[in-house]
Amino acid sequence: MRIDIVTIFPDFFGVLDVSLLGRARRERLLELGVHDLRDWTHDRHRTVDDTPYGGGAGMVMRPEPWGEALDALLPEGEDADAVVVFPTPAGVPFTQALARELASERRIVFACGRYEGIDARVAEHAATRARVLEVSLGDYVLNGGEVAAMAMIEAIGRLVPGVVGNPESLVEESHEAGLLEHPSYTKPQVWRGHEVPEVLRSGNHAAIAAWRHEQALERTRRVRPDLLPPEVETR
Ligand code: 6GU
What we know:
It catalyses: guanosine(37) in tRNA + S-adenosyl-L-methionine = N(1)-methylguanosine(37) in tRNA + S-adenosyl-L-homocysteine + H(+). GO terms for molecular function: tRNA (guanine(37)-N1)-methyltransferase activity. By secondary structure, the protein is α/β, with parallel strands linked by helices. It is built from seven helices and nine strands. About 25% of the residues are buried. The site of 6-chloroguanine has 13 residues, from strand 5, strand 7 and helix 5.
């Protein structure tokens, strides 16, 4: 998979050199290109924003540098199967299901906006060249798309085959079964008076699986009831 990122803060993405994704890049499982939007400006001040039509607070990113950036990364007639992701709090929710879907793409471009967003015509025009997704990390506001893109790239990248060493660890985690994950324990058996639940030391695999499922269900009911199907009335 190849991922390109367009941003006015290319330095943000230095962290993608470390840890799991850094190794994936060195092993060529993941190709990553980080591009400075200002490279596609032509004025002395390398201007990327302007005041909003219709008035209001803040600045809006001008369409011209974005148009040139996307032209350069997605030349007309090529990469018709690319996906362009615009991180925005006004987008569709980013979920594990969307991460899975994007992990099977060949080419993704992240267009990271700042300020009050990017002129809406940029996404409109990009949609004539590629599949466009406006995606939100959750119901809160970040200063720009960079941190959101990073989170999405990590969630997507670790689902690319070969990036995570033991693929079984991907199956058992939170959100894959529609439930939050059960609690985990390691040695020592007693720590500061807190004991590891007996069942986990029983060697009874069926009992362990049942306990973990019950814990996952209880935790999901308690902290994320919205993830569960509507309660069925019983009597
Ligand atoms: Cl994707 N962008 C910004 N700027 N803020 C957000 C977000 C994205 N998701 C949640 N908040």
